[in-house]
Amino acid sequence: xxxxxxxxxxxxxxxxxxxxxxxxxxxxxxxxxxxxxxxxxxxxxxxxxxxxxxxxxxxxxxxxxxxxxxxxxxxxxxxxxxxxxxxxxxxxxxxxxxxxxxxxxxxxxxxxxxxxxxxxxxxxxxxxxxxxxxxxxxxxxxxxxxxxxxxxxxxxxxxxxxxxxxxxxxxxxxxxxxxxxxxxxxxxxxxxxxxxxxxxxxxxxxxxxxxxxxxxxxxxxxxxxxxxxxxxxxxxxxxxxxxxxxxxxxxxxxxxxxxxxxxxxxxxxxxxxxxxxxxxxxxxxxxxxxxxxxxxxxxxxxxxxxxxxxxxx
Length: 313
Fold this sequence. Notes:
This protein is of the alpha/beta class and 313 residues long. It has two domains: 12-123 and 228-286, 3-Layer(aba) Sandwich (D-Maltodextrin-Binding Protein, domain 2), CATH 3.40.190.10; 124-225, 3-Layer(aba) Sandwich (D-Maltodextrin-Binding Protein, domain 2). 41% of the residues lie in helices and 17% in strands. It has 13 helices and twelve strands. The strands form two sheets. It has a six-stranded mixed sheet. Strands 5, 6, 7, 8, 9 and 10 form a six-stranded mixed sheet that branches. Helix 2 (54-72) crosses helix 10 (239-251). The longest helix has 22 residues, at 275-296. 37% of the residues are buried. Residues 1-37 have low confidence and may be disordered.
């Protein structure tokens, strides 16, 4: 946990203050003019995993933020992190009030006070994206190719590495691997010819601009579906506030903005978290535990890959 870096607020890469400018966030000056800032009135911190660049992350999730603000009568600020590892560590430190959580982070987050509320309805498909004219037709065509992966703590990175491990016992030698700053950046690198393929997920592919998608195509390598993102809240908010947040989230898909959000993303709305979801979360969470251990030991990419390929060693 000593490797925690300072959390950044979406929009900071553009030089903005917080998400929508400083005027959106209550200040001590506001308190001097009227109501004091308390735990009940302070802005809620909504954590979103770093799937995209800061501007794209903000644009995609602003409808959700605005809906929560109206439903809860409370300011909501979108936060993320520089990568998935720092996002997880920030969750474990309780730096978010609400967090859209990858399934492999759910168990560890629950141990630190987060409560699973709802998950997106549609399961994920992990895809390989290649150029439209590429001769890559399946996973066996990847040997010797340049392959982009999301950052090392991303769920899609782990699944992608498992694919590559099925082809080679030394994927760091048999493939030209690179970590991409975001899913969007990885797909655009494929389009530009900088890499041959990139691992991503169906909802993120659907959010890519249509003009770029026409130049690319996807390959469903595993023909397998994976658990979707879980929205969690911190127990410190209290039962009454947690139930208000649950009700606000459940109402979001019924709004015009919510319908567009879920149609564009193919998330499909919200459903309750089931026992099976929690069993899956625990199973995938084991992978994260030893990834944290390797990270704390400053193990290089080759050693991390070896652990993914041979988890029992």
